[in-house]
Amino acid sequence: MSQIRIRVLVGLFLAAGVISWAGARLWDTMGTLPSVPMAAPIVLGLIAAVLAATALSMRSRLRAQRERRPGATGVNPLAAARAVVFGHASALVSALISGVYGGVGVFLVMNELDVPPRRDQAIYAGASVVAGVAVIAAAFFLERVCRLPDDEDEDRLPA
Length: 159
What we know:
Blueprint: H1 6-30, H2 39-66, H3 77-110, H4 116-145, H5 149-156
Helix pairs in contact: 1-3, 2-3, 2-4, 3-4
């Protein structure tokens, strides 16, 4: 499986942000803007916490296995692969969702931020973007922890 590419995540974030900003602008001219759910940053934060906890657990188990500590439990390669796939998928979806909420947040900041409900929506949108970045960072950390030593050697070989 290929590594997570920053360019892909940034491109997905920007494309979703521009489309959602334009959509929010259009939607606002026709009526009320749909609200940003308060649960969005909470759910993204929970996903980031699960990814980080998984990475930390695997890192300690791999370190114990590498140091040949007595009673160390190894990491099942299939479980590590599943965790990396979960992290990769979470990063992609998080970039998309963060872009959507970022676009809506930019629209809200640019228009009528003095209205309390809109200000709350802008705060939720901003918190969702921050939580989405936390998911992406945790996914990168998990991918780094689960990297095989052979993968590092392949990166150093000339093309």
